[in-house]
Amino acid sequence: MATLRDIKSRIKGVKSTQQITKAMKMVAAAKLRRAQENVVNARPYARKIWQLLSRLANENDLNTNPFFVQREVKNVAYVIVTADRGLCGAFNSNIIKEAVRNINEDLNNDSLNVHLFCVGKKGFDFFSKRNFNLYGKNLGLFSSLKYSEALDISQKIISAYLDGTFDKVIIIYNEFKSIIQQKIVVEQFLPITLITERSEKKNEPNYIYEPNQKSIFDYMLPKHLRAQIWRILLESNASELGARMTAMDNASTNAKELIRTLQLKYNKERQAAITKELLEIVAGANALKAS
Amino acid sequence: MHELDLDIISPEKKVYSGKVKSVTIPGTKGNFQVLFNHAPLISTFELGIIKVGLPGDSTRIFTTSGGSAEILDNKVLLLSDTIEAVENIDLERALKSKVRAEERLTNKSGSIDFDRARASLAKAMNRIKAVEKYSTLKKDIPI
Fold first, then answer.
1. What are the catalytic residues of A?
2. Closest residue by Cα to residue A171 from A179, A161, A163, A181
3. CB contact under 8 A, A219 and B42
4. Could you tell me which of A263, A218, A236 has the C-alpha nearest to residue A82?
5. Does B70 sit within 8 Å of A45, measured CB to CB?
6. B42 touches A at CB < 8 Å
7. Where are the domains of chain B?
8. Domain topology for A4-24+247-290
9. pTM confidence score
10. Mind listing the pLDDT tens digit of every residue in chain A (291 residues)?
11. Which residues in chain A have their CB less than 8 angstroms from residue B79's CB?
12. Which residues partner with B68 through β-bridges?
């Protein structure tokens, strides 16, 4: 049986937790707005580069371009984008679950080597403790996300892809659908599966290419890949904040509910104690009168 | 009016968007200027300075680390990883990164990536030069 004092201290504890979750929700909401803006701001760049590339793409080049050629797959790399911090609901565990499922499928195939590249601390914490082949990591980048991070990551992945360490690169990340909804996306990053919107090609203006079509294409391609990574980082960041906001909102509501029931219990207890005391007094008085 | 639509886009944001009279670009095969009725062109450009002539004879200067330009129907689209207006350049930071890059290039201790140091030195120099040369234009620039 909980005493009045126990209940009171519990109410106090829950209240202070509620304060923390409320504050975290506010912080996430404020950051989320900026993250959402960043996602929107990054779109025109990525889209324009893609348009340029599909305009420049040339059937013959694609068949020999290392970024497009499908090699026999012996080494697969999974880039797993998680958050750096927890307290955002099932955000991290969902993505880790999905990653593990995909990886296990590939591990059943004996001729495949699986490499992992962890972006975000939570994924690294999980996979580094288990028996996985960790190729690389980038941690602690989400607190202040910069384009140079995307550069860094794509550099590592692209160079490993080109020197044959990986034959295929798959990225698993959370796509930002809305504040309350994230979608896990498993996307093949390299080789690029593609592209050209042929319909657009018909009424093409006669461009002058400087220096020439192929070298512009080769110059733009890494930029496209970087822009992709950048987009993915931004999406994941926005999703994380959205997930944290909803999780903290739920936590605040739960705390409120908990406080309500505790308060009710406290009041009942208090009333019971008063009634008991009264009864004792009355009984005592009666006993005195009777004697 | 002989004006062009100019859009300058970096991965982080739209840097500039508006009507201009001319754009001078440090193209891979040499500097070139885009004026009204330029032929359709797709070109890459290098580290350097982009000069934008605004209607009414004022100029805006941008520094860039290179990118691509597309010109079609009097629309100019510049895409670049880093591109910034000269008035937004943090001169102190540029000077610091210049010193850092120079240090790296002189201290030849193994693990340093020379290409990267050289590139960042070039970028810092580009910024510093732009500020020194053009920051007097500041007062002409509508912010």
1. 88
2. A161
3. no
4. A236
5. no
6. yes
7. 4-86, 88-140
8. Helix Hairpins (1.10.287)
9. 0.85
10. 578 899 999 999 999 999 999 999 999 999 999 999 999 888 889 888 988 888 887 766 777 788 888 888 889 999 999 999 989 988 999 999 999 999 998 888 888 889 999 999 999 999 999 888 889 888 988 988 888 888 889 989 999 999 888 899 999 999 998 888 889 999 898 888 766 555 455 566 788 888 888 888 888 888 999 999 999 999 999 999 999 999 999 999 999 999 999 999 999 999 999 999 999 999 999 999 887
11. 45, 48-49, 52, 223
12. B44, B79
